[in-house]
Each structure stands twice: as structure tokens, then as C-alpha cells.
Amino acid sequence: MRYGPWALVAGASHGMGAEYSRQIARKGLNVVLVAEAADPLEALARSLATEHRIETRAVVLDLALPDLLARLDEATRDLEVGLLVYNAAYSVVGAFRDVSLADKLKMLEVNCRGPLVLAHHFGLRMAERGRGGIIVMSSLAGFQGQAMVGTYAATKAFDLVLGETLWEELRDRGVDALAFCPGATRTPTFLASKPRPSGVLSAPLMDPAATVAEALAALGGGPSAIAGRANRLAAFVLHRLLPRRALVRIMSRATRAMYG
Ligand SMILES: NC(=O)c1ccc[n+]([C@@H]2O[C@H](COP(=O)([O-])OP(=O)(O)OC[C@H]3O[C@@H](n4cnc5c(N)ncnc54)[C@H](OP(=O)(O)O)[C@@H]3O)[C@@H](O)[C@H]2O)c1
């Protein structure tokens, strides 16, 4: 893999973040793993180091902290990070009036401020060196307003636009960027949200390993990509053929069926 020698995965302890860490380690890069829960993070860091004969570093950190940059810089200052994956997300499901302001602001901090700070810090260093890669995890939720997941969806729209902008602005500096948009994926966080079937153009649940493999393969191609053929087909129908009013209403019907 041409990015390296170190990758940093923000939100690495389970779900797609753990899968990113595994697949990147398999390609021979050293990996900094960042998450809040120390035990799974440190266990994964140890097992990847042993299995793939790479170096790993577990950084236990809340990505919502105001002094995020100072803490992360202190933990990684001696490393050349050539691949950044911003995977972590915070999501509280509920009608807009029912979700607390504290939860709304935490979604903004983890899902928007976090990737912005890390892309600024590591991305500009990559551009100075003339090489690197950045993946910002967005979502199919980021393409339209949606009941029950409105703030989360809005943060994912931010991630989509941020990743695409980095693609445009950094590629002539040797840095590949990608906004990656999964649909429903079988991760512990998704399963814990206990979704019911929505019945609306719902593609089958994807496995984290397949989703992450697609993201890594798409880096270096276009500005953004959607995971899975069924999701791409549904996205084409929903985003290109429907008026916005119909799109928002249909997707809101789906999220109300899942979580209402
Ligand atoms: N799963 C899906 O169906 C789906 C669909 C579309 C898009 N996505 C996007 O794909 C990405 C991964 O989703 P996921 O379901 O695998 O997992 P996730 O629950 O969104 O995030 C998992 C990782 O983020 C870490 N994390 C969360 N908040 C953190 C914080 N404040 N500070 C540090 N680490 C934090 C978690 O570790 P700790 O628990 O230790 O903090 C965990 O390692 C997200 O960006 C999500 O929006 C997911």
C-alpha cells in the first residue's frame, strides 16, 4: 500500500474501525488505533502487532474533547501518519424534539469537528510531504434530511462534503481523499440500535469486512463512493430520480418504521 508508514484509525475498537485496522495492518502499515474503550483497543493493537509484525499504538481518547488536537499531537508527534481514516461516529436516534441538546452537540463534535481537526492536522502534513490518503466516513443518511436521525444525517452530509473537498484540494499535492458512504452495515453499534425492517428500498445488511475493503479499494479514485451494488442502485433511484420533497418523505417513512 502506498500510504504509510503509519495509518491512524479514529474509532478503531469495534465495528468498521476495527476492520479498517485489521485490513490496513494486513497491508503492512503500522497502525495508531484511537477510541475511548481501553481494553478492546489495547487487545486489538497487541494482536495486530503480533499477527502482522507491525508496530501499533493504542491511544485512548474521547474525540469530542475540546483539546483533542493537543492530546492527539502529543500521542503521535513522533510518527509519520500517511493514512488517516476518520471512522468514529456518535449517533442518538429520536425525533428532533426528543434528542437532548447535549447529544446533538456531541454528534457535531465527534462527527464533524473531529474529522475537520484531524484532516487539518494530518492532511496538511501529508500535503507538505506530497503523499498520503484520507478516508472520511459518511453515510447514505448524509444525502437527505431524515426524521429520527436528523442531526446524525446532517453531520454525515458535512462528512460527505468535507471528504469531497479534500479530494479536490489535496490531490495535486499527492494526497488521495475519499468520502465513503455505507448503507446499513452489521456492526455492534448498528445492531444495538435495534432497527426494524424499513420496507423502503432497503438493501441487505453488509458485512463490515466487505464495506471496508470497498472503501480502501476506492481510495485514489473519485471524491466519494457508496458501499455495495444494492446501495448504489437504491441511491441512484432515490437521489437522481425523485424530487427532494418525495425523497425526504420516503426516507423519513423508512426511519420512522425502523425506530418510531
Ligand atoms: N453501521 C452502519 O450501518 C453505518 C451505516 C452508514 C455509515 N456508518 C458510518 O460508519 C462509521 C463506523 O460505524 P460503526 O457502526 O462501525 O461504528 P460506530 O459506533 O459509529 O463507531 C465505532 C468506533 O468509534 C469509536 N468512538 C465513538 N465515539 C467516540 C469518541 N467520542 N471518541 C473516540 N472514539 C469514539 C468507538 O469506540 P469506543 O466505543 O471505544 O468509543 C468505535 O471504535 C461511522 O462513521 C458511521 O457513521 C455506519
Primary descriptors:
260 residues; 7 strands; alpha/beta; single chain; binds NADP nicotinamide-adenine-dinucleotide phosphate
Main beta-sheet strand count, sense and barrel state: 7 strands, parallel
Overall radius of gyration: 18 Å
Class from secondary-structure proportions: alpha/beta
Strand percent estimate: 5-15%
Give the SSE order as H and E letters: EHEHEHEHEHEHHEHH
Task: Give the end-to-end Cα distance, rounded to a whole number of Å.
Answer: 44 Å
Tell me, briefly, the overall form.
globular
Low-confidence stretches: none
Compute the number of strand runs: 7
User: What's the number of helices?
Assistant: 9
Strand order of the largest sheet: 3-2-1-4-5-6-7
Spell out which ligands are present: NADP nicotinamide-adenine-dinucleotide phosphate
Would you spell out the secondary-structure blueprint of this structure?
Elements (H helix, E strand, L loop, with lengths): L5 E5 L4 H12 L3 E6 L2 H15 L3 E5 L7 H9 L4 E6 L14 H29 L2 E6 L12 H21 L4 E7 L6 H5 L15 H11 L5 E3 L2 H13 L2 H16 L1
Parallel strand pairs: 1-2, 1-4, 2-3, 4-5, 5-6, 6-7
Helix pairs in contact: 1-2, 1-7, 4-5
The structure holds NADP nicotinamide-adenine-dinucleotide phosphate.
